[in-house]
Amino acid sequence: MEAPTRRDVLAVGTLALSSLAGCGSSGSATDAPATGDTPGSTSTAELDLREANVTAVALGESDGGAYRFDVTLYHDDAGEDGYANWWQVESLDGDRLGRRDLLHAHGTEPFTRSATVSVSDGVDCVVVRGHDRTHGYGGQAMAVALSGGETNAVEQGSERQSFDRSDCP
């Protein structure tokens, strides 16, 4: 039996913390700021906080092609009536694979929420997109390689769109 990897240890710690925190919605939740200094995250210095920006994605695999996505959003929920109301995982051609609804504003700090999403065989890269009630899509999304969890920040634009293979890490 192989020794657990750092990712395995972090996933267990995140799972333990997520059982203690919640937002009154289905799925588990954790709170952690995105600093841009950890794997799977980007700097938040130049983001438009009116948009629901995905700043980090941590990925864990479970049996049967289901992956746990720990997604950090950064949006100025306290600055307007519209708040970040969901994030979703999509195939590169824009097909929704799973979605995590957010039921209330989360303030002005980055926050992390989790969901498990089933991904079809043969899909090796997905995009995680944020959405807010006022502006819809916009800001930063993340392309995620399912094989190792590497991420690449991509501008998602205000209209739903497909992503290119070159967007994948």
What kind of sheet is the major sheet? Answer: 5 strands, antiparallel
Q: Strand order, main sheet: write it out.
A: 5-4-7-8-9
Outline: globular
Name of the CATH class: Mainly Beta
Textual characterization of the structure:
The chain is mainly beta. The chain has a single domain (6-164), classed as Immunoglobulin-like. Helix content is 8%, strand content 36%. The protein is built from 1 helix and 9 strands, in the order αβββββββββ. The strands form 2 sheets. It has a 5-stranded antiparallel beta sheet, with no helix packed on it. The protein has a 4-stranded antiparallel beta sheet with strand order 1-6-3-2, covered by helices on one side. The chain is globular.
Short structural description:
The protein is mainly beta and 169 residues long. The protein is built from one helix and nine strands, in the order αβββββββββ. It is globular, with a radius of gyration of 15 Å.
